[in-house]
Write a structure and sequence with these properties.
The complex is a heterodimer of chains A (421) and B (470). With 421 residues, chain A is mainly α. Chain A contains 23 helices and no strands. In chain A, helix 3 packs parallel to helix 5, helix 9 runs parallel beside helix 11 and helix 18 packs antiparallel against helix 19. In chain B, strands 3, 4, 5, 6, 11, 12 and 13 form a seven-stranded antiparallel sheet that branches. The two termini of chain B are 20 Å apart. Classes of the chains: A mainly alpha (421), B alpha+beta (470). Chains A and B meet through helix 1, helix 2, helix 3, helix 5 and helix 7 of A and helix 1, helix 4 and helix 6 of B.
Chain lengths: 421, 470
């Protein structure tokens, strides 16, 4: 009858052995009579079953660790990071060269913003499996966050040479965006969307295409991209947030706020809450604005509770809506952990807001070292330059920021317009 | 077995996809996960009963298509290229390749509907999205193997996904419209079909019932019933694929054996390129014999396997076949005495061809290459045996691969040592596809419609144990 246990090879432990398949080691010792059950559709439960069936198998543990990581990403529940960490460490204790566990642990480190650890693990995975594309995703992501852009370019090129497809194309796009090539970034993102993949991945790159179109000032194209994203995954929060930006860019601030309010109960990213708060402030709804700012602060705190380091976004939030001295301290901490252009921009802006525009300008220039056209970077650089008494430099930066005005938050737009006058 | 297993496993496992609602400012780039639009699921090559003078090939992509997947239905990627390769010398290099290139047009960009109700044909404006393809035939010349590309068809329609009876009251009109005969005598169909693969994947997770496990007596559940794939089906006159450009006179003819596999290519991009110029192509997927990629090739080598051509298989991956992990797993699970080392019998059955049956004539060695080797001179069997060659039916797998060949059972038994006199009646309990295959081109059953959205389940009726080899 159901013989099939042989097929079990492909199944649970089995999944571990064959699908993820680390080193070609002896088959994991199956505990006798282990009841793996049918695949339940719940990867976490299946992976747990795999670990029960083969408690000694590093592959099974790697599998479970990745399931935790995936779940943590999907739910934003940082308490899952600790579990993923335990399980993946267990896998690496049993088999230090397990590629799946190294990649899983590297991905997890990235989620917690520990990019040096992410890079270390990615390089270790590459040593074990030099012909495999996956480790390069971990390596490249870490290099980007650590500000090692030349190395990142090589890693991404290697990735796309080894395995063109959505993950590689999306990273090519990001690199081009960071280096001031938004047209090339959009082209690469079209390849990513055309290749497709898991619906969440596709919806994500479609939403990113929308963001890129906004920085190019193409509002209608951005809207099309966000709508495509919503057809892929209904209610995808990045795309809903994008549509709110489209509304705002078209001057429909009330529509934009209404859209974001509908998003607010579902724990949207802090960035979206801050955006909504700025809209409420602009409309004179101070109490609602304060409520959204508190929710945004709570969201940042939750992210850190999972063991994650703070990031540039929380620095900007503190600089714009919190306590300025704290923003500078936080900004320095973030810069030490991840010396990226994004961190440089955030620290520079914190300094400018704290009344130290000369220092702010020095950091803003560092943020522009890859010639990014990010309108927010340009705005921050312009404000710092103006306050530091460098009028011509400021005017140049404001002009560049204006081109991407559609991608800026309402408060940033107000700021830009005030300074340009 | 094939990619779907891997895909499902990976889904179950690790699909490192992309996050919802990430709150950090750094970019969450998607991890390497599934790439269904480039993913070869299965390749089949056989001589059809109604087309004895031709090579029939079916190559499938996009594993596990759920029929009700609107409004974005599955399709081939317009920016990828899809191949069927034929090796007529046995060296593992393509001698003739067929390349499919796709282009999708949307009639009304404002509508998100694939088609309006009642769409009746490719010219009907109610069909909003239409994918068309061009077919290139490629031959290779000289020592440097320069490709000679000839486009033999342009703008042919891809049969659309079967959305449901309201949208497509007469879906068959689309199918019939997608069956084309080309001027050189080749027949071609491209479109959505029922996944012809059958396997009880779920049973793999089922309790390890040791007493029954080595029986082959039905009762398995076809986990792929109700799922669709995208297929290309070719029926090519023998003279267009043989090494001397002539029809095959008989099973002993020097030109009788061809090796078949399919691949997918994607474009490489220049990371720091500022021009719109496009990069060269990179092979990202390939599939010859079922099981090889999924079970034989270890994770660290999978991407490389997908990039390489069969002529390098022996050097790069031979050791994984000679000492298959699956044999060790079968022994650990069931203690069936499967030989774990020196499995030259598997190498011969899958990679070299069986002498006197589907081994390339004149190939020295012969090289071990992962192609489906078919002797075009062997007449189709009157009564097909799902066990193919080990069941005494030499017109079936591994001499070619027919849609109905039970490759899961065959490969389990071969790995268990069937060819070394260790005949164990292994099987997955599923003996055939949930939908009957067609007796005429394009042979694969029609797709499950999106209207019948819940994938059906079919359980193989129980039967008395089938001995090893059927």
């Amino acid at each position: 009858m159901k013989v099939l246990a042989p097929l079990a090879v492909f199944g649970a432990v089995l999944v571990a052995m064959v699908a993820l398949h680390g080193s070609a080691t002896a088959p994991p010792a199956l505990s006798a009579g282990a009841d793996l059950g049918r695949p339940s559709g719940d990867p976490l439960r299946d992976a747990r079953a795999a670990v029960r069936a083969a408690p000694g198998s590093a592959d099974a543990r790697a599998l479970l660790g990745e399931a935790y990581v995936t779940r943590a990403r999907a739910t934003g529940d940082p308490s899952l990071y600790a579990r993923a960490d335990r399980v993946l460490s267990g896998a690496l204790r049993r088999d230090p060269g397990n590629v799946a566990a190294l990649v899983g642990a590297g991905t997890l480190a990235g989620l917690r913003h520990d990019f040096r650890e992410q890079l270390r693990l990615g390089l270790a995975a590459r040593r074990v499996a030099p012909k495999l594309a996956r480790p390069y995703t971990v390596i490249a992501d870490a290099q980007i966050e650590l500000g090692q852009y030349a190395d990142a370019a090589l890693s991404i090129q290697r990735l796309v040479d080894l395995k063109p497809g959505l993950p590689a194309y999306a990273r090519v796009s990001y690199y081009r965006e960071l280096t001031g090539n938004p047209d090339g970034a959009v082209r690469a993102m079209r390849f990513a969307a055309s290749a497709g993949g898991a619906p969440e991945s596709l919806a994500y790159v479609q939403a990113l295409t929308g963001n890129l179109e906004l920085t190019r000032g193409r509002v209608a194209a951005a809207r099309d991209a966000y709508m495509a994203s919503l057809r892929t995954v209904p209610d995808f929060s990045d795309a809903l947030e994008g549509l709110a930006r489209v509304d705002a860019a078209r001057g429909d601030l009330r529509g934009s706020a209404a859209r974001l309010r509908r998003l607010a109960p579902n724990r949207p990213p802090a960035r979206a809450l801050a955006f909504l708060a700025e809209l409420e402030l602009g409309a004179g709804h101070d109490r609602a604005a304060r409520r959204h700012l508190r929710a945004a602060a709570a969201q940042f705190a939750r992210d850190r509770a999972g063991g994650g380091l703070p990031d540039a976004e929380s620095v900007l939030f503190e600089a714009n809506h919190g306590e300025r001295g704290r923003a500078v301290r936080l900004g320095r901490r973030v810069w030490r952990a991840k010396p990226s252009i994004r961190s440089a921009d955030a620290l520079g802006w914190a300094l400018t807001r704290a009344g130290r525009p000369r220092e702010g300008l020095a950091w803003a220039r560092r943020a522009l070292r890859t010639e990014s056209l990010d309108p927010m970077f340009r705005l921050h650089a312009g404000v710092a330059a103006r306050r530091a008494g460098r009028g011509r430099e400021a005017a140049r930066q404001f002009a560049l920021a204006s081109k991407g005005e559609a991608a800026l938050s309402p408060a940033a737009v107000r700021l830009l317009r005030r300074f340009k006058r | 077995m094939r990619k779907l297993l891997l895909a499902l496993a990976a889904l179950a496992a690790s699909a490192i996809v992309v996050p919802f609602g990430i709150s950090s400012s750094h970019r969450e780039a998607p991890g390497i996960s599934l790439d269904p639009s480039a993913d070869n699921t299965d390749t089949y090559a056989w001589t059809a009963k109604d087309a004895p003078g031709a090579l029939t090939v079916a190559a499938n992509w996009i594993p596990g298509e759920v029929p009700a997947n609107g409004p974005n239905f599955h399709s081939f990627d317009d920016r990828a290229r899809y191949y069927v390769h034929i090796d007529n010398t046995g060296d593992g290099r393509p001698d003739v390749s067929y390349r499919f290139r796709f282009k999708t047009t949307v009639r009304n960009k404002e509508s998100f509907l694939y088609a309006l109700p009642g769409a009746s044909g490719y010219r009907d404006p109610k069909l909003n999205v239409i994918q068309r393809y061009s077919l290139d035939r490629i031959t290779y010349r000289g020592k440097r193997r320069r490709a000679n590309v000839r486009t033999i068809a342009r703008g042919l329609p891809v049969a659309p996904p079967n959305i449901g009876p309201k949208t497509f009251p007469n879906y068959d009109s689309f199918v019939n419209g997608a069956i084309r005969s080309l001027s050189d005598g080749t027949k071609v169909f491209v479109g959505q079909r029922d996944d012809p693969f059958f396997v009880d994947l779920g049973a793999t997770f089922d309790g390890l019932n040791v007493r029954k496990l080595t029986g082959n007596q039905g009762e398995g559940k076809d986990d792929l019933s109700g799922y669709n794939v995208h297929s290309t089906v070719l029926q090519i006159p023998e003279r267009l694929v043989t090494r001397n450009h002539r029809a095959v006179a008989g099973a002993d003819a020097a030109n009788a054996v061809v090796g078949v596999w399919s691949t997918t290519e994607r474009r490489r991009l220049q990371v720091s390129g500022t021009s719109a110029r496009r990069g060269r192509w990179v092979q990202v997927s390939r599939l010859g014999n079922p099981l090889v990629n999924e079970v034989v090739i270890p994770l660290g080598k999978k991407d490389q396997f997908n990039r390489t051509t069969p002529n390098r298989d022996a050097a790069l991956y031979g050791k994984y076949v000679v000492k298959p992990e699956l044999a060790a797993v079968l022994n650990a699970l069931f203690d069936i005495g499967a030989p774990e080392n020196d499995r030259t019998d598997i190498v011969q059955a899958l990679l070299q061809g069986i002498p006197g049956l589907n081994q390339h004539k004149g190939a020295s060695g012969p090289p071990a290459v992962d192609t489906i080797k078919l002797n075009l001179g062997v007449a189709p069997a009157e009564m097909e045996d799902r066990f193919g060659v080990i069941g005494g039916d030499t017109a079936g797998f591994p001499n070619g691969r027919r849609l109905s060949d039970d490759v899961v059972d065959i490969e389990l038994q071969v790995v268990a040592g069937f060819l070394k006199d260790n005949k164990v009646p292994l099987g997955d309990g599923v003996d055939g596809n949930d939908k009957p295959f067609l007796s005429a081109f394009p042979y694969l059953a029609g797709p499950t419609s999106g209207f019948d959205s819940a994938p059906s389940t079919r359980t193989e009726p129980g039967h008395s144990p089938t001995p090893a080899g059927g």
